[in-house]
Design goal:
Blueprint: H1 5-12, H2 29-49, H3 55-71, H4 85-91, H5 95-102
């Protein structure tokens, strides 16, 4: 597996690749929550009004939704404080929250 381009990228960037436990959604709550949001806010709605004839058509609609999700839709999760994911990525964790989390 070390020869795979993704694994090589991780090694070059000195990123540790961690995997979650199989059949244990509790250990990967953030991804599970994203899946639920995609299902509730996108696929269940689009599936009622549109019949997809190709995977490419479905991917185009998903890409449009993810653009809104990442750049326009504000989030209320931990350290988000009403920001979009893009804003949170660019701005990082607020310094006062960072100090609270790591103060010991």
């Amino acid at each position: 597996m070390d020869g795979h381009p993704f694994e090589l990228f991780l090694q070059l960037e000195d990123i540790e690749h961690k995997r979650t436990q199989v059949r244990r959604p509790q250990s990967n709550g953030i991804v599970e929550r994203l899946h639920r949001t995609l299902l509730d806010e996108h696929f269940r709605i689009k599936g009622r009004i549109k019949f997809y004839e190709s995977l490419e058509e479905m991917q185009t609609d998903l890409d449009s939704y993810l653009q809104i999700y990442n750049y326009e839709r504000t989030h209320q999760g931990r350290n988000m404080n009403g920001r979009t994911p893009h804003q949170a990525f660019v701005e990082g964790v607020p310094i006062n929250n960072f100090q609270e989390v790591f103060a010991a």
